[in-house]
Amino acid sequence: MICPKGPGDPSRELLDGVWLYKYRPPAQANGFASYINEFVYCWLRTALLFARIFLTRPFSVVQACNPPDTYAPLGLIARLFGVRFVYDQHDLCPEIYLARFEKPSKKIFKALLGLERATYRVADHVISTNESYRAIAMRRGHRTLENTTVVRSGPDTTRMKPGPAQPELRLGREHLVCYLGIMGPQDGVDIVLRAMDVIVHKFGRKDVSAALLGFGDCLEELRRLCTELDLDDYVTFTGRADANMIRDYLSTAAVGLSPDPYNELNDISTMNKTMEYMAHQLPVVTFDLAETRVSAADSAVYVEPGDITAFATAVCELLDDADRRSELGERGRRRAVEVLDWAAQARAYVSVYDRLHGITRSDGTSAAPAPSVRVPTLARASKGSEVEAAGSSAGQALRP
Length: 400
Prior knowledge:
By secondary structure, the chain is α/β, with parallel strands linked by helices. Helix content is 44%, strand content 15%. The strands form three sheets. It has a six-stranded parallel beta sheet with strand order 10-9-8-11-12-13, sandwiched between helices. Strands 4-5-6-7 form a four-stranded parallel beta sheet, sandwiched between helices. Helix 11 links the parallel strand 12 and strand 13. Helix 2 runs parallel beside helix 4 (106-122) and helix 6 (189-202) packs across helix 12 (308-319). The protein starts with a strand and ends in a 10-residue tail after the last helix.
């Protein structure tokens, strides 16, 4: 595995039988030009490690995960040496660009579509993180059902599960609400603060604290907004959160928040945080997005996208109804265990490599793919052309 270093990481280590080769990460990007520099830097460092590893530890398949969609040249080089190339499409880079920048350039958008198309063409197989993304691979990339596989980012519910509450995390108040995830322009974390502003200053609730777990491009901007809204006494920013911190906060919270605003990217992407809330038996308040309904089904409260007052109202109504919180939490945990759990997705993932290597299992079959997750009958009408392309089946995308 080739990736950037995390804090304190060595350049090379063996973890659970997997060799990790890591390079020094680039500086934090804060604009389009710096994103280009970051992509070029990461590509070059990856290419150097790619060549070094192939010369010392030859491999038969290389898997490239996006974003960005810049690894088609490495895939093409790999294929020249008989190495298969798997495109693991975690995100839709053209749609990410539209979601992150206020005035997107048509030329840049077309260039991103071109990079995506080139990666589709080079790939021997495409892994999609939901059925909506798979439909896009088939339409934009001209792939077929046979050379695409859906592998969702399901939670490992044997590890992600509720633990004992830590009352001190509530900051002396009766209730705690939590946000978990990346804090970028498209993630809507400012909506959590604006909803808390409504809860505290408009509704007059002094019994609610909020914890925001994670980091990202907008973290400092969010801290400033928190101060401007006079919420510093009510909101905790934890920064980077490890598994223990996540368990403690989600086991203590009364409600998990998914404030992702509606756009063509978010509507067809399922956020990991939603599934982690469910795995920890935490009821969810979320804007009504197509793929979020696929994951959460009847274990969440859905609000019309963009309505911050309605979002705040839904949170307060749940806080005041312990029985409903318990019911939604139990539904979410059950769905996480029975439908979304990683174990089933692992079979689908292994089946890709069985197919590429011509491997047959000892029982005479290849590893079975995971069952499809269908849109529940309560789903609203889909918005946007990308969702319409997905038809009536959709899954969960790998989003923070």
